[in-house]
Amino acid sequence: MTFASLITGFIVLSWINPEELGRWQSYTVFIGYVQLLALGIPQGINRELPYWLGKDRIDTALEKLKTAGAFVNKLVVALYVVLTIVAIVLYTANAIEKEGLAMLMFAGSLAFFNIQRSFLGATYRTSKEFAKLTNIQLAISALYMLLIPLIYVFDIWGYVAYQFVINGVFVILFKIYRPYKIKYNFNKEDFIDLFKVGFPIFFWNYIGVISRSVPRLVLVIFGSPLLVGLFAPAANINNAVLAIPKFLNRYLFPKMTFKFGQDGNKENVFKTALQTVKYLFLVMLGVGLLLVFLLPYAIPMVFPKYKDGILAAQIMVFSGVFYSVNTVFHVALNSLKEFNFFKYLISFRLLSLLICSYVFVTIYDDLLLGVSIAAAVTECINMFNYYVFLKKAKRN
To answer: What's the whole-number mean pLDDT along residues 70-79?
Structure first.
């Protein structure tokens, strides 16, 4: 799936003008902010389901799952209603044109798909279920390639439809093959429990992910659609490569949490995270160095309109390398429920990113280059911070 995503990203850059792509991404940059409305319930069930299964409390695990499912379904319906009303009001007031209206609706739909995927993906917890998840990923990978003609024929709108269809099918497949086909039922007490666990996980994940979007957000606010478009190679490559730690953590997190539920041994969680990081860093560094070498040749040859974004893309590769390590340490802290550490880690990360962005933009007098260097430097610093705090969590 990582390979398919990377190939698609290159094709998009070769066929779509930077200005058009930048306009669409100016809408999608706000998708992450919508996740706040889920209140961390998908993240709560992601942690609690394997934990209670590890304690052999299956009834408790399923009751919490019923509540999480009921909440997510009602939330998505409510959000669609609100989005439709807002879109109608904006269009009626001539605050947005037809194309902007369509992009708003599609971007909102992608945000709602993400909420559903986050919840449904958390229900795949056993080795057998991960095998199903693998098959789903393979099917989506094939879809990535089969739908590419949409982009060629319909340009930016083909790409919009492309993303909508793929994410929609992802949700449908998740629903069809979900492990626990039970009737969802909302319970206030279980909701509160999930909120207490899930919201801290979500909130600090959310701030972390949002901080990842700061470079592009800076370009949206202080730059232009052209700069946002030129940043697309960096963003696309990062998203594709970071699928490696993303799916690794999807497997690793419930495994660590299940084991922690069984024996309560923090040392095992620490060792698992450290061992994973050693191999992951080497793999990501190898991939990163290969991309840094290939990009100056590939970008001018395949999509010359984006050649001014080569250096930014090369720098952002290393941001992804360091960030991949941070994600493993992050899920380890979540397994241990050491949420208190995140207020220091994430706050420092966001603050240092903003400061570094200002410093490097001032030094180089280049908005695109400055935010890229700031992102890489910040992730490197944060990698060492995460290690220190995880080591501290082990001793608590």
So the answer is: 90
How much is the average pLDDT of 82-99?
Answer: 82
226 with 351: CB under 8 angstroms?
A: no
**Residue in the block written with tokens 């497997």:** 251
pLDDT tens digits for range 118-128: 888 888 776 67
Q: Which of 350, 346, 297 is nearest to 326 (CA)?
A: 346
Whether residue 87 has pLDDT greater than 70: yes
Print burial letters for 339-357: b (CB count within 10 Å at least 16), e (below 16).
Answer: bebbeebbeebbebbeebb
* 145 Cβ neighbours under 8 A, 6+ residues apart: 4, 7, 8
Separation CA 388–CA 334 (nearest Å): 15
Write the CB contacts of 333 (distance below 8 Å, at least 6 apart in sequence). Answer: 339, 341, 342, 386, 389, 390, 393
CB 368 within 8 A of CB 362: no
What Rg, from alpha-carbon coordinates, does the chain have?
A: 21
Q: What are phi and psi of 127, to 5 degrees?
A: -60, -40
* 191 confidence band (pLDDT: 50, 70, 90): very high
